[in-house]
Amino acid sequence: MDERDQKMSGSGMAGYAACAGKFQLEKTCPPSQSSAASEMGDRIHAYLEGQEIDLTDEELVIAQRCQQEYAEILEAINLGEPDHTTIEKRLWYGDTWSGRIDRIEHWGDATALVVDWKTGRVGTGNSAADNLQLRAYAVLVKKNLPKLKRIFVAVVQPMATRFTIAEYDEQALAIADQEIADIVEIALMPEAPRTPSPDACKYCRAKAICPEAGGTAKELAAVKQEIIPQLTNDQIADFMEKADIVESFIEALRAEAKQRLKDGQEIAGRKLQAGRTSRSIENLSAAHQTLAGIIGEDAFLSACKVSVPTLEKAFAEANGLKGKAGKEAFEQAVADILVNKTSEPIMVRAK
User: Quick check: 62 and 158 in contact, CB under 8 A?
Assistant: First the structure.
């Protein structure tokens, strides 16, 4: 059930700003299929809500880091203990758009803090002050609680980068309200223009059917490989932008084709075949008991891979430590055997 009723969402505000026509085209698409990453995020969010839920070791580490950074945010804004908390509540701006906000802390009627959890390894790419989703959330909270005079917003993304905080006073909230209203007004136009870009297409559900994104793919395909070394740096930069759009388009296209094949539809030249089978042993103690006496202790140990996060968690619990203190103590204890490796440089989008 879509609790947004196909209305615009605060979480998509950056996408609407980058491509005004995105919203109208997405309305023609079915809901996104759940992924392993989104399901993991849902479990971590449920845990942070206070639900009793079993997390994997990796998920628990992420959740604990979120909690640690949340505590540091409260310390940074220095307002004392909140009067009350609102968790996972959807707020509406009239009947036009809404946002489901992870956490809102309240200090009386005048001050609030909006917290957004990001549990993936890819960050938002901008600070809380520049984050349009958080700006939209600040506008939503002000709309629903008009007595507020100051709203802090914070994005917590421990697997990507350090948390950031921004503050909106009444003047900044008024400016933000007008900015969001302008974005929404254009996006609701029946003929809102579509302008594909890496930022606009990244999370767009309609990129597989977007004529403009498809046109970019055709344009890029027309480039002859042999001329690439002769391109100027500016031309390279332009084609890299187009390549990012096309990669996103192809990914969505393949996902859509695969889902249709799973649903029993036919697509010329494509079929599903059985996936690869992988083998694993989950019970290390049982494996040791069964095999160490046959292949030898050294051979058994050489076949095992040590999970540093799991060891770090166990070490911290054994010593009654949490968060940064546990990490630092663990790294000091294993300093002589801990190996840090740096991979080849990764090309990323410049801010």
Answer: yes
